[in-house]
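EI: anyone free to look at a 346-residue chain?
SC: sure, send it
EI:
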Amino acid sequence: MTTDAPAACATEARARFPADTVIIDADDRRTPAAAYGTSTMIRIGPDGRLTLHRSGIQDQAAGGPDVLLDRLREFRSAIAVLDGSTRSPTGNTYLSTAVAEDGEPKQLVPKTRIRLEFARVPNKNADGPRVYDVVRAYVGCNSLGTAAAADELLTGGSLWIGGIGGTQVGCRPPLRDQEEWLKTFLTSKPSWRLNGDELILATGGTTITLLDRKIAEPDFPLDGIRWEVVSTITNADLRQYHHHAEQAWISFDGGRLTGWTGCNELSGTVTRNNTELTFGSVATTDRACPAETAAMQAAIPATLGPAVTYTIDYNQLTLLAPSGIGLDLKAGQSSCPLALAGKGFG
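SC: here you go
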């Protein structure tokens, strides 16, 4: 009877079953305004993926089967994070250290390596799941990526990518072929496993071994680097590139700030904690600047105030003021020759 609509009362239920069937009558205990119905049934496949087997009261109350499934996937993923024995690549970036096909090393295009980033991001749209699991990939030309509902990307020990999009930069044939090879690999549902800081993906005789980016490329220190301005930031995430401006930079030395705005010297003081910088006494010299350099110069001291959030990702520094304006910077050179011994610049 599981495919039938639920009986509205004990009397209706008795009419559906043989006379000797015991029907427990609890109609007098029901709350008239409350919804009643058959239970939703969820199927868990051998690969761990969740699908709807039968609609019921739970998914109807949640707002539909898709909403309920998304909540269950997100809950299951959150429980897995709390389980110390369960690890996931989500939240980490990995760089390839070796590629093999049929047991033989495969050489990538010179000066390229595979970069995979796994993240969980909020859904900014009103429709769909509350969060998405995303994977971003790069192997020398276009930035690639795709998204799935929480816990649907890395399920049952496999990477589930139905399709992958990306930028549309025209690649030279070696890079283009390498990119198409990586797309085919990622969409073939490769298995994945973590071995310490290594991520190992494998399918059809091809194995890619990657190392956590924090180990493969440790973050640059804040001090002792000439951080060159790449773009200015407005509204926390809109980037503007000043291609015709002179190169601007800032440098940190303990509590001292120095820099160049493109046409004026900059100086000031700085204090810090693990996530924020507080700038003081920021001043520049007073030479007139060409138009685009002047626009960039205005953004630099405007960013350098109190409670500026800073993040370093390898050789990239982002400064973001509470107002939402900020700077993207990249390590240009060391102001102390010994500070970066052994590091390369990407």
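EI: The first helix runs from residue 10 to 14.
SC: 👍
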